[in-house]
Amino acid sequence: MAVLILVGFGLLVLLMAVYGYKISARTAEDYLLAGRGIGITVMFFFALFAISSVWTFYAYPSYLYRHGPGFVYFIWGCVAGFSSLYMFLGPRLWAVCKLNRFLSPVEALGERYQSPGLRLIVSLVLLASIVPYIADQSLGVGLGFKAIFGFPPVVGIIYTSLILMLIVLLGGMRMTAWVNVLLGLIYTAAFLGSLLWIIYKVFPGGITDAAQILKDREPDLLCIPGPKGMFSPVITSAIFIVGFLAFSWPHIVISTMTAQDKSLFKWLPGLALVVGGILFYTIPFVWGSLVAPAVSHMSLAKVPLLKDKEADYIIQLIVTRYLPSWFSVFVLMGVIAAGISTAAVQLMTSSIIVARDLIHGFFLPRGEDRILIRLTKASVVLMLVLSIGIACWYPVELPLYLVGIAIPGFAQWAPCLVAGILWKRATKAGAIAGTLSGSLYLISGFLYPPLLLGLHPAIPTLFLNIILMLAVSLLTPPPPDRTIRVFFDEVEDFLAKKG
Amino acid sequence: MREIMNHRPGKIFLLVLLLATLSLLATTPFLTIPVVLVGWITLPFAAGIAFILVWLMAYLIYFFRYWPFR
Questions:
Q1: Which of A9, A210, A212, A386 has the most CB atoms within 10 Å of its CB?
Q2: At what angle do helices A116-149 and A153-166 cross, to 10 degrees?
Q3: Which of B36, B43, B49 to probe by mutation at the A interface, max A CB count within 10 Å?
């Protein structure tokens, strides 16, 4: 029965993708950027559920479960980072890309700095960082399959990858955004529903019972630095900064390019703060920092205390042991929805980078729309195969795919992105020096960790990147007048006009 | 961002966001006590909610009274 439900869910998503294929225009702009026509409602769901993923459902609560509430500072940083993207960078990036018909943010940076070399470096860094994050999504679903059915994770990985391929190949960015609305509703219902039901069933006095159990048995789980002393004040501040780098996640940055008009940038920061920061992200926090550890620490617990990778699917395990099996399958559907809603956007983004910035940018500069769309679709398959390989490999705990691998990589294009959009004096030499040095430092740090000085990989590499970006830019001649006109003067005129 | 820095309300807005962020980070050494507010709210969570509320207030005032784009 459970398998039939999951097959039915896959078919529903397939139908939506086919519908998206029928209604979409056959232009590259339509396929890659939804014709730059996403309105506020769809954009809100699109962005929120592109951000909220299997990582939010499984990995983030599992980290809180193991280390206490200090990791919530990562989320505070993310909320500030997303809001800042829509407040400060989004309007200008949207305007310059719309005015010049850029189809990728990397393409815009290549033009801003007049540098195909920088375009190549940024493309490779972003691809190397985003593919493990796509793998994180399908692996999360695989672990859900394991928790419920006992299947090896590869079953869930393949199931997720097939659905992803259908959505992205048939529907493009528009259907990816629309499917996110449906998936987001399923995700929220499963996530919030499971939390409320577990509290109702396990803690008769409500959530305060859970807090009391922890206070009596493991009080370190209620404060920083946590039971293992991981979140010292310095680490907690650093993790906030790492979270703030969310403004540079490429799949979120590209969403700003799909906006219908500039008024979206007036409303989205508020939605990010209220719905994201105050409402939605409270669900995984309560799940992971209070309910799950209290369940494991209570007398006669059906789910014992789990450690390391075992804790990656603690939420699913608690739901499976305490709630009816049909609801457990529904929660797994929520996890699948969470994974697909994020991975589809990531897959579109990475495929656009391969097709538009690497192949179209370097080998087929005069390729028609039809060829660009085909190249993007071929890239989708390539990216999926790579992500399946990384998901099956499963080298680190689920939370680290994002925090330890993807974010340090995304961080390396942040200085040249911010400076390119906001600082007239930023130069090609500065952007290349910063991005290349930061990226090489990061790779060296992954190969030989002592080079990172015991810090999170994003921190020292970003510091070097920013210093070189600033210093080399100031020491080299300013960008040509044409660049200033296109990326600043025309953008400012356009944004100042009544919309 | 460039537009926001070009007028006084924008500068005040950015200053409020910065001060709220620095305050959030400066309070981390005081969150080492296992205290819960209203039965379940831990101190790191409460600090973050206060931070978000300050950002929200600043955003509401600035974006709906002084937003530089028409």
A1: A210
A2: 130
A3: B36
